[in-house]
Predict the structure.
Amino acid sequence: MNFTLSKNESEKIKNHFGQAFYEKLLKNIDIYSEMWQLEIVKLVDYFSVNCILVCRSALYGDAVLKIGNPCKETITEYNTLLEYNGNRFCKVLNADIDNGVILEELIQPGIQLRTEKSLEKRLAVFSDLYRDLHIKSVNPDIYPTYVGWVTRITDYMEKRDDFKELCSYMKKAREICLNVSSKFNQKMLLHGDFHQDNILLNSTGGYTIIDPKGVIGDPVFDVPRFLLNENNEDETPEQNEVRIKKAIDYLSCSLNIPSAIIKQCYFIETVMAYCWCVESNEEPDMICIKTAERIINE
């Protein structure tokens, strides 16, 4: 292996993924370093469904190596990037999808849009990337649908004996989603997680999109995740509400989407996100949900 994980890094990986994954990771680093002529530079200190390593490749140049367990998320991310083929998204350089491994181009300097202090600048960047972005998938059946996401988590919440109030909000969100999707019914390939941390400053001074989930639906459903991530834990609910409303007004004008629709999508996304939290044994933020409810009722 041309790269050695520190003791602290090793423990973090074992705690998050387990010993078996850790052992497989070490083997995979060796295998793909040789296969793609990689020199591993560092491990990214962030763990979700995979480990991320920054590397240099004699074949491809600066790259990001993602190693995870084979799963649907890896398949849909890989195929989404292939279909967009570098159009505002980062490029896939190589992959072994059956083994849960993707090699992607490294975006440099790679500063997340979240670090931009100006709300208007963040919204302008998002709007520029969003306009005329979405394409029809050549193979839509391999992706989940946005309505399917909403339906699945609602069914899950209805089977639980706790979180009754949250469940009632989710049922309301499902009803709103079905209504919105009956009017905004394009079947396009969405990013599915289109927010500030997945928009990186590139070497030309523009921005590049990374880490798509890959989901089929109308482009309006690719707006609310960005709004949800405008909530700031260090600020009061009132301050967050003011910022979200301002952002909705801006995006309604810049994207030519009725503000009422964006508000409804924001409500759907907010409730669904906190139902996913419950599914992951985390506590939901009911204040954020009630704020989203207030926004759609105005």
